[in-house]
Amino acid sequence: MSFPADPYAPKTLNRTEAGAYLERIKLPVALLDSPPCLSLLSTLFLAHLEEIPKDTSPLHVPEDQWNGPSTPIKLGSAFTNMPLGAAALGRMVHENKGAFCFSINATFASFLRYFGFTVSELVGRSFKSLGNDPLTHPDGWKWGTLTHQLLVAGWPDSPDRYLVDGAWGPWNLAKPIKLTTDPAGEIIMGLNDFEAYRLTYEELPLSPNMARPIDNIPGYTLYRRIAPVGTPHVLPITATSPGYWSPLFHFHLISVGLADFMLYHHFSASHGHASFTAFWLLTRIIPGSGGARRSMMYAEKEGQGRRAKVYTTGGPEAQGSEEGRDVEWVEMETGPMKEYHEGIWI
């Protein structure tokens, strides 16, 4: 991709492309004439998460390798195969495949703009001790680099704006959540009684022993509530409610230009130390399941063999447990992987 002449020019799908996107996420094409509103945003967002998986496979398998004889899959062997930004439309919509955040969220943003939503494309800093309580865990407030794209959406006659993220993966918030500067933050339930999330306006939380930035501005932190297994969340959630808040990511409300996303994409997908090339992941919400998610995961670990684990997490059945269930195994070779994908993922 060449350097953009107008890096902040928004990409917007045309009517034909938006119609194809609706068909891909199994929604009626009649929605093409719907005005932007919270109900429409919620419908499009959930359907997107149910049908388009977060998928790192393009980083590991060149497209022509799928069509030849079955060969071993080597992690990080196809660095530049992941499309950047809205160029992922063909892969996601016409080929019925997935991608990762710098492809999925950029394309989802261009889809939302067709309906008249105003969408800001942002970059976030992921929490590196997921699921832990930063106030008590030895990791503390362990933050990574700016390697996650997310979106904030609004519309012309609405005073409110909402975080939507079409590519976080496991424990993804599947509802829009309102941005607020209220110190209490915005707290909402997820898709079942064992999911709750909070979006808080604050400076990047840091452990007491960490150096403070000299110059800093407040941003937003998205948290997931974690309670003992079998304990449903009940609003309002207060300091005495069971469980704790565990961060997912932190971001600043500053629109990011396409040229900058080119750099973030390179660091995550095609740099020699690219983080996403170290693992194989496909994951999406099971349609109509109340938040249950089917995932496929593989990372090279000594003594575990070369098989990807396929498992289900979340949903009301899990009652807050993060343990995988309905486990299957797939050999890390293109033949059995393609056969499994055609029956499950595409």
From TrEMBL:
Pfam families per the UniProt record, alphabetical: Acetyltransf_2
GO molecular function: acetyltransferase activity
Disordered: annotated span: 306-325
Transmembrane segments: none
Family annotation (InterPro entries): Arylamine_N-AcTrfase, Arylamine_NAT_domain_sf, Papain-like_cys_pep_sf
Membership in a protein family: Belongs to the arylamine N-acetyltransferase family.
Name assigned to this protein: Arylamine N-acetyltransferase 1
Species the sequence originates in: Mycena maculata
